[in-house]
Amino acid sequence: MSGRADFQEKLRDMPHKPGVYVMRDRLKHVIYVGKAGDLRKRVGSYFLASRKAAADAKTRALIASVWDLEYHVVRSDAEAVLFEGKLIKEFRPKYNVSFKDDKRFLLVRVNLGDVFPRFALTRLRKDDGARYFGPFAHSGPLRSTLNTMRKKFGLRSCRAAVPDERDFKHCMEHALKNCSAPCVAKITRDDYLERVAAACEFLDGQSREWIVQVESDMKAAAERLDFEKAAQLRNLLDDLKTTTKPMTRFTRKSLPTTIHPEADIAALQDALGLPRPPRVMECFDISNISSTHIVASMVRFRDGVPDRAGYRKYRIHGTPHQNDFASMAEVVRRRYGRVLREAAASVPDAEFSQEPVGEAVARIAEDSPLIPDLIIVDGGKGQLSSACRELRRLGLHDAQVIGLAKEFEEIYRPGRPLPMRLPEDSGALRLLQRIRDEAHRTANDYHSLLLKRRVRESLLDEIPGVSTARKQALLERFGSVHRLKKASADDIAAVRGISASLAQNIMKTLAGNFPGSV
């Protein structure tokens, strides 16, 4: 173990520039990440005698624990915010509070493969062929820039995948001269795509003509003594410059990291006494609000990193009320029951085998690549007991399973009355936290999606003549209210129990509730 760093020497080399600083303890684990507009002043303040005397207990404990520190210079305060957030999510330092949740910075998404592409805000970058800009540190200037950019280039903001004349009838954006109305061929598709390309260049910071024009207009308004207009243009100019300022986009590969999947896997095997390294792990989480859409998620980690192709989402059907224990039992039973059925189906002549059922299940489980080395359930004794009971019923007596209770990060193991608590800076615990947090995020996202669908479906309840049976028939035929809104009256009337007049009423009601989009 190396000695404590000479902080005064480090401070002498530290520049008066914006950046991010990282504090480590004597074991080289990251315990705090901070940002600064002036690195030398901000970091130096920690080691002033007056600061130590006036600091609260948490800050004094932090200063006492710091053994070494490093810094990273960036080009602006906005870059510092982005870099700080990335590092905190990566390391989960014990003395940081902000940025530990699932919230992400805003991105701008545009799918250039759409007929009439539109720019929209999102927080999640997907591998869907779309183009993404960002992330952006300041959401207010970004939203203002995006709204102004749509007006400037005449870009559509409606959510319809392919807007048509029906959408145009209820569209106010064209009437206000904010949209070029490609849906009714006011301009050709090629002309519209040229506008989209120009907007992309602007967001990329490659085109500065608009900013120069706004600056010129601001000065002209000031010379005319139109100070209100000049102030509006000044605010717009600030937003445009903030959004399009050149900025480093920090990725996982560009982060200084202490996360070593191989080392974390070895540490977890040692901490839990597992017979083999947990290279494949699966974690379950339940999400519900009261009894509305009880759902579960299963995420898979392979070699310490997410294996998203193995993620699964479930709607819980076995219990009408909130019951985490019963819900956990159901999802574990469904997951591994299916795994065993698929594995057995791949064994030639399995149904004619004279092998005892228990031995057959054990052999299939051992040979199946879908049986993980470690199963993790989000929760304590109750959830763990429910999972173990279902695994035993399936014949998976040797499956390695634990429960991870979030409040105190306690690890529950079958047959052990007391939970285990690992050090907060343990690589094994950080690995468990990463997979648990990913399961939690996936379950919450799925739950939110179902709630949005339910809000849309509830519109059908307000239409006179649409009974529960007819509503169910419509959703079975079209899949969602979004697709139902795009259907013609004849298509709707083709559904059993729907008359021509009712079909027309359904179309009018949905169009009135979602003008231009669903």
Descriptive overview:
It contains 19 helices and 14 strands. It is of the alpha+beta class and 518 residues long. It is flat and about 70 Å long.
What is CATH's topology name of the largest domain? Answer: Nucleotidyltransferase, domain 5
CATH architecture of the largest domain: 2-Layer Sandwich
Which structural category do the helix and sheet elements fall into? alpha+beta
Strand residue percentage:
5-15%
Spell out the key features of this protein.
single chain; 518 residues; alpha+beta; GIY-YIG endonuclease; Nucleotidyltransferase, domain 5; 4 domains; eight-stranded mixed sheet; three-stranded antiparallel sheet; 19 helices; 14 strands; 46% helix; flat
Would you summarize the structure shown here?
With 518 residues, the protein is an alpha+beta fold. The chain has helices at 7-13, 39-45, 49-54, 57-65, 77-91, 139-153, 165-169, 189-203, 209-223, 227-244, 261-272, 324-345, 357-367, 381-393, 427-457, 468-478, 481-486, 489-493, 500-513, and strands at 19-24, 30-36, 68-73, 106-110, 120-122, 131-136, 280-289, 292-302, 305-306, 312-315, 374-378, 401-405, 410-412, 420-421.
Question: What topology does this entry show?
Answer:
Blueprint: H1 7-13, E1 19-24, E2 30-36, H2 39-45, H3 49-54, H4 57-65, E3 68-73, H5 77-91, E4 106-110, E5 120-122, E6 131-136, H6 139-153, H7 165-169, H8 189-203, H9 209-223, H10 227-244, H11 261-272, E7 280-289, E8 292-302, E9 305-306, E10 312-315, H12 324-345, H13 357-367, E11 374-378, H14 381-393, E12 401-405, E13 410-412, E14 420-421, H15 427-457, H16 468-478, H17 481-486, H18 489-493, H19 500-513
